[in-house]
Amino acid sequence: MEEPDFGSMEITVVGLGLIGGSFAMALNKLKPKRIWAVDVNSSVLEQVEKTGVISKGFTEASIPLQSSDIVVICIYPELAVQFVKDNLAYFKNGALITDTAGLKEQVVQEISSVLREDLSFVGGHPLAGKESSGFAYASEEIFRGANYLITPIDGTKNESLRLVERLILGLGCRQPIRMEPHKHDEIIALTSQLPHVIAAALMNSSGSEDTGSFVGGSFRDATRVARMNAELWSELLLENKDNILEQIDVFTENVRLIRTAIAEKDQNSLKEMLENAGRGREKF
Amino acid sequence: MEEPDFGSMEITVVGLGLIGGSFAMALNKLKPKRIWAVDVNSSVLEQVEKTGVISKGFTEASIPLQSSDIVVICIYPELAVQFVKDNLAYFKNGALITDTAGLKEQVVQEISSVLREDLSFVGGHPLAGKESSGFAYASEEIFRGANYLITPIDGTKNESLRLVERLILGLGCRQPIRMEPHKHDEIIALTSQLPHVIAAALMNSSGSEDTGSFVGGSFRDATRVARMNAELWSELLLENKDNILEQIDVFTENVRLIRTAIAEKDQNSLKEMLENAGRGREKF
């Protein structure tokens, strides 16, 4: 396949939060013809226009969509689906649409089911983020070396898939990993959602005591993501209910096994469980 | 109180593992007259002597103890107690002894109960460490800005307490925090032991799947300390059994509350718990 000619393309980023803002910044590396942005907040658009990261911002999506070869949707999962439905008539003929939502099965299924024949959609999920949200914290650095999952389905055009992959590599991410949407949601429940649940539960366990002065690196690291965007994360957890409940149960059972070994002063079992964890962690 | 004249003092470090080795390195900043080391492993002693970090190493503690004004014991809690008992006759008259064990109540009580009248013991616990153990990973940097807990008891001489505090500040740590030994063990169950239990349980939950490519920062951070020294940590957890069991139960209950909100699709409660965690985390 030839290299895509990003220099002749117009790209629209929908949503200039942390991920969308970072995306817009990193897209500049590809030197596309234009980078447009859509956001509901006109003052954010003005501010970002001034930085030169985007050519122009719009609160009305229909304008930039009509000339955009690629559209990157960086808003909450439910809103992403709604955005495609609401603006279906405006997408440029043959445009490629991708998103960055942390859950894929429902988003991919709903968008695919309404998509015009000439359009392509490839779901994506950058494993990149920060504890703070909003454009003020955006940085192209969040993509550097980051894992990026994409979720093609039967019928996804090979050409669209390759274009998304080149785009992602161009941001500075690693070679994206392809997986089925339902598999994505299963895995992410373990590798991303469960650690967020744990961080919140651990933080909530510390009560009102001033533990700040007594914490070492272990508590600090384990609770880093407790500063999550509660609005977004409560939505993500509820939409992936079955998978996250299963992971919570597996985790709780593993905590229980360690608890039992401690309660029974069973040093051999305890040591074995700790060693097993250490061996697993060494692999990455 | 006058500044202690470290330049006239001899200091012995017992145990040249990660903490003892780092201690010996950082002690050089105080420019003491001599830094001795005691270890059971003569090849480690030879190796460290060559680096110039210590003046000389001994497998036989009686020799350096006789002239040491300060003795820093950096070995496992039970061994630390045994070391003091076994070498009680050799300590220099009026010497100050401190340790770095991650648990304090039992160590402080046992050492204090056998201590000679002329000697002082002040329990200490640097909240500093790494996932790897041994002198090869030692670095004075682990103390930079680290929290350091000390556990004086009734009868601890003010002069000894001040000397330990100056020593700790000299390593590059923050102003040490004084607390009762039993309080230390309670707090450390939450701020250090529980995160280690969680990291191990989370790692053990990931099963045999190759999750390495799918993890984002949240999983990586939450499992960092899973690469703990299993021998040491199984001992620490068992010796602090009642406190860690209580903390595990509080944590498990907080996980259960989040689980219930997800299972019942109760977005308000879920969001509230996540927000509460975020507010707590912002404080440090």
Describe this structure in words.
The structure is a homodimer of 284-residue chains. Helices cover 49% and strands 12% of the residues of chain A. By secondary structure, chain A is an alpha/beta fold. An eight-stranded mixed beta sheet of chain A has the order 3-2-1-4-5-6-7-8, sandwiched between helices. The radius of gyration of chain A is 21 Å and the shape is elongated. The model of chain A has no long low-confidence stretch (mean pLDDT 94). At the A-B interface, helix 7, helix 8, helix 9, helix 10 and helix 11 of A face helix 7, helix 8, helix 9, helix 10 and helix 11 of B.
CATH architecture designation of the largest domain in chain A: 3-Layer(aba) Sandwich
Oligomer: homodimer
Query: Which strand-content bin applies to the residues of chain A?
Result: 5-15%
Kindly report the spatial arrangement of strands forming the biggest sheet of chain A: 3-2-1-4-5-6-7-8
The largest interface is: A-B, 83 and 83 residues
CATH class of the largest domain in chain A: Alpha Beta
Give the rounded overall mean pLDDT of chain A.
Answer: 94
Using the CA coordinates, give the radius of gyration of chain A.
21 Å
Query: What is the tally of helical segments of chain A?
Result: 11
Write down the overall geometry of chain A: elongated
Question: Uncertain segments of chain A of ≥5 residues (pLDDT<50)?
Answer: none
State the share of residues found in helices of chain A, binned by percent.
40-55%
